[in-house]
Amino acid sequence: MHITVLGAGAVGTAVAFDCAAHGHDVRVFDFEQFPDNIARIADQGGIHAEGDISGFAPIAWSGHDIDEALQDAELIYVVGPAYSTEPFGEAVAGKLSAGQTVIVTPSSCGGALAFKRAAGLAVDDDSIRVAETSTLHYAVRLTEPGRVRVFLKLKAGNLLAALPGKHTDDILILISDVYPSMEPGFLGIGAQPQLNHRYLNEDVGYGLMFMSKLGQQIGVATPGIDAVINVATIVMARDYRSEALRTPESLGIAGRSAEELAAL
Fold first, then answer.
1. What is the pLDDT of residues 67-91, one digit of tens each?
2. In this structure, are 93 and 224 located in the same domain?
3. The total number of structural domains that make up the chain
4. How far is CA 147 from CA 12, 34, 37, 239, 241, in A?
5. Which domain holds residue 245?
6. pTM across the whole model
């Protein structure tokens, strides 16, 4: 299968390695402001890995040209933190083809919705199947450009859901050779040394803010979530409510009832 990985951080590199090690033709893309890993993968013709998965896997192409990256792509992984989902969606807008599958990993709350909106796809459009995972596939670090150490590849506990949901099972079958333990639905790393970190800022700014706004929309009170947002706003001296990084409005689902959302 022809697979494109958007995002050449540690996890994107691990995804690319793992897919290529399973015999797939893999292309890796990242934006020009992230040149080092892309260049090394291109120079050495592949990726080295050590740890839970290991060896050398050849990569068909690595670069910054999105058109080259998407050449013949059947499956596209969007791999990165929450703030990268929309830029990757914008980069591929108007360039995707019917029948392709996109997997946003991890979701970071509403990742499939965010990607579809940025890529110019309607929420209920299923000509291009878009899915999201509940977490990352790996505990992994880049040890140097072109090389990763995989401390753990998840063998359980990672979930996938498609949008629309009717495609979930088919996408699980599509990726089952690389991720056989991935399950449907949304049924040992040390803590960070500081509060001003994306774990907190993403969870509050993208996740809790979205849930709070969604609760308001469908008439469900979220006092606990709102209290955490208020505390984080005080502690971080950052107005997460004004930033509104991810809301039903920004994802194109504002005004929909609980029943309409459940039908997606």
1. 999 999 999 999 999 999 999 999 9
2. no
3. 2
4. 12, 15, 9, 38, 39
5. 198-262
6. 0.78
